[in-house]
Amino acid sequence: MSIDEAIEAPLSPARPRVLDRLAGRAPAPPPPRTAAHSAGAVTAVLLALVAVGSLLHEPVLIPPLAASAAIIHGAPGQPLAQPRSVVVGHLLCAGVGYGVLGLAGGSPWAAAVAAGIGLAVMTVARTPHSPACATAVVIVLHAPAPWTFVPLLLGSAVLLVATGWAASRVRPGSPRYPAYWW
C-alpha cells in the first residue's frame, strides 16, 4: 500500500492505537484545585517580587525567576525544583554571565555562549536548573550592576524556595516541597 492509499484508506480499529503509541501519553492533568493552588502561589510570589522591585526601584522580577517559580510550584518533586538547584544554579549562572560579559561584552552571541557555559557549570556542580541559564543571558544582554543584582537575585531565589515550602504545607495532601534541601 502506498502512502497516498494509506492516507485515504478508511480508519481501521487498529489505526487509532498506532497513533496513540506514536503520540505518547502525557500524564493526567492535576485536579483543578491543585492547578488553582499552584497558580495562586506562583502569582502571589511573583507579585511580591514586583512589590519589592517597586520599593527598591530595581527590576527584581526577571523572566528566569518566573520560570523558577513555575517549576517549584508545578513540579515540586523534580530535581530542577530543589533548593540547591534553584539558589545555587542562579548564582552560578550569574557568575558565568558576569564573566562572559567582562570577557566578550554584551552581545547576543556572548549571551548564547554564557547560557551554554552556565548549563555546563550547573551540570558539573549537580545543580540543574534550566531557568538559571536565562539569568546568564539577562546579565550579558542588560549588564546590571552586580552589587545590586546579585543580592536581589539571591533574595528572590530564597523567597521562591520559601514560598514553595510554605505552599506545600498549606494545602493538605499536596506533595511536600522540597524533596531534599541539599
What does this protein look like?
- By secondary structure, the protein is mostly helical.
- The protein has one domain.
- 71% of the residues lie in helices and 0% in strands.
- It is built from 8 helices and no strands.
- The protein has helices at 3-8, 14-23, 32-56, 63-74, 83-104, 108-124, 130-142, 146-170.
- The mean pLDDT is 88.
Can you lay out the helices and strands and say which pair or pack?
Blueprint: H1 3-8, H2 14-23, H3 32-56, H4 63-74, H5 83-104, H6 108-124, H7 130-142, H8 146-170
Number of helices: 8
The gyration radius over C-alpha positions equals 21 Å
Q: What shape does the CA trace take?
A: globular
Average residue-wise pLDDT: 88
Structural class: mainly alpha
The proportion of strand residues reads: under 5%
Care to count the β-strands? 0
Helices and strands, in order, run as HHHHHHHH
Count of domain modules: 1
Keywords:
mainly alpha, 182 residues, globular, 8 helices
